[in-house]
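quick one, 360 residues, struct below
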Amino acid sequence: MDAIALIAILALSALAFYLHASKRHMRKAVSNLGGPYNIPLLGALQLAYRFDPKNIFQIPTELKNKYGDLFKLWALNRLIVISGDAEFNEQILTSSVHITKHRLYGVLHDWLGVGLLTSDGQKWQSRRKIITPTFHFKILEEFLQIFKQQSEILVECLAAKADGKTTFDVYPFVCGATLDIIAETAMGTKVKAQTGGTKQYIKAVTEMTRMLGWRFLRVHLQNELVFSILHPFKKLQSMKNLRIMHEFTRNVIKERRKALEATLGSQNPSAGTTSETEQILGTKKRMALLDVLLQATVDGEPLTDEDIREEVDTFMFEGHDTTATALSCTLHLLARHPRVQNKLLKEIQEVLGDDLESIN
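---
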């Protein structure tokens, strides 16, 4: 037993030395950055495990005030650089060269595959070339009617809760609205999240988004094997949600492809023009992202159903949660600052009056 224990200690020591040495160049590169004390191999793990969704902004703000706009911390053997420098962030985020994603994004692969959010290199370039034109403001204007319809439903839902006395969490309501909007604009299908429509899919998306947010903040759970061992029931629930979401998206793609092929096949080949095709499909501008992907080609080859699923799921994830968070924060700030809220209301009334139909 003593020999086994000694071998185990030596093996662990060798592994620790290797892991520490493998990051030597990174430690040198950030040696001029300040940051909290890091225990060798463990890093500032005690600090990293304080993070949760409620203080995700509070702790970095405290560290920024103490160590400056740019600082470092280690979690186990992983380097984390946190920046509060707007100009530096802009250079990184707008770069078309530095696009390789951190391995943290690996937890998204089961759901999103390797789409625009998680890919890099040539695949990222080709997918971005296909997708970017669909978000031109002129095209987005064609979706204003959808924005308006879903916003009216949201207002009705909020009005039922707004008694002027009771506080409530606005996020679930806003999240339902953004899910409805992104589903109809990206997939061309109604999920009716605000009115109790496709409950199973909505529940799966909501649970999966919450689960990923939790795993992002736990370094050890970003490893799929460790997550499966430590939280087997959560892993099983994630697998169930993935199956529901992928099945829903694949069915939408399948039905949309059939409808598109039938529509194009019913055209008169001798009289078909681009403008006529656009009218039949609901105008080129009004086509959902899914329609664009179904007709797109890369190097002369059409995208596979799995390629399309990656991008549609990516935009369902990116498009609803980020927008819902921003809108919820905006509503919270407006509620806290009635003077600004009144100025905003006055401006809306001056521009639109009671004629909401004229929104453009």
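DSSP finds 17 helices and four strands in the chain.
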